[in-house]
Amino acid sequence: MSRARGWLAASVLGVAVAAVALPGPVALAQGQGAPAQDWKKEFEEVCAKTQDAMALPLKELESLVARCDKLKPTIEKLDESQRKVYARRLKVCRDLYQFVIESRVKE
Amino acid sequence: MRRWVLFLAVSAVFAGSAFAEQPGSKKRRPLPPEFGRVIINNTSEKAGMAAVSFDHWYHRAKYTCRVCHVDVGFAMKPGATGIKAADNQAGFYCGACHNGKLVVDGRTVFESCGKALIGENRQACLRCHSVGKNVPPSIDFKAFTKNLPVGRLGNGVDWEKAEEAGLIKPSDFLEGVSIPRQPMTAQKDFALTAKLQGMPEIIFSHKKHTVWNGCELCHPEIFVGVKKGATKYSMVEIFDGKYCGACHVTVAFPLTDCGRCHTRPVQ
Q: Distance, in angstroms, between B208 CA and closest chain A CA?
């Protein structure tokens, strides 16, 4: 039940992210003065918790991994420099959460 | 008996590792200022520029490993990041700091790969594109490290003590690049002591390493084993740059300082 709710939350968020991400490249073209893009906000929220990963409940870790996966296609559409940097940052963040999940499951 | 085993292991290590001069390559132990130096040359020489030389000693005194290797996104292998002049110009990689705007210690950090400078002021380019150019450094290694606690090997500096004594204060945050982080919460089920459950005779502080490196740098890339103590790490692999050796061969205090990791004498 609560797992289903987690998924629901994740997909709602995903849709929201996808929706705001569409005009992303346009916003980017405006250069450095532009306000932080929405994908960036989502990235910063999702990946801010890595060093507290051990203290997070399993469900939250799973939802964080799902949010990373949802964000990936958006980041892959960014221009080359940003894509290189943020695709790697997103990957190491996602893989860390996944690593902590697996360490719980196996114990 | 145990001593003998150790002696043999050590001999094997010394015979088969970075210590042995590799035929052809004439590897010698780096001098203190050279320890942690990385030569980056995927594109430079092809584009008619000298290769890039990057030194860890200065940068690590100013920033944690995490700022560069997690937030800025540098890989931990020479050349593996694939840095391009265009990335630097757009404010990524070296250009995240070397942008002609950031001010550190009252000085504006010089710009990287700036278009405007091409042809005009090659001198500015030479500060990074310096391999083979005999460029005098603007920050003198001896003067910079003079008052720092002495370490036996590596840069000749005990970086951990330097930080503990507040002589260096590496920043853990780069404006516009790092994600603002809360101080680490006390975590249940997490070895915050200087011990790992599976390695009772090894000194290792999970907490200190996290502050310097960030979890993402070690897991899962360097340490994939998820069951405490399930993976056996051999010293030969570590000397080969795996596990602890991913950092402790080229940048953090080197492996020849056995006693800093082993609680029992191993040599």
A: 12
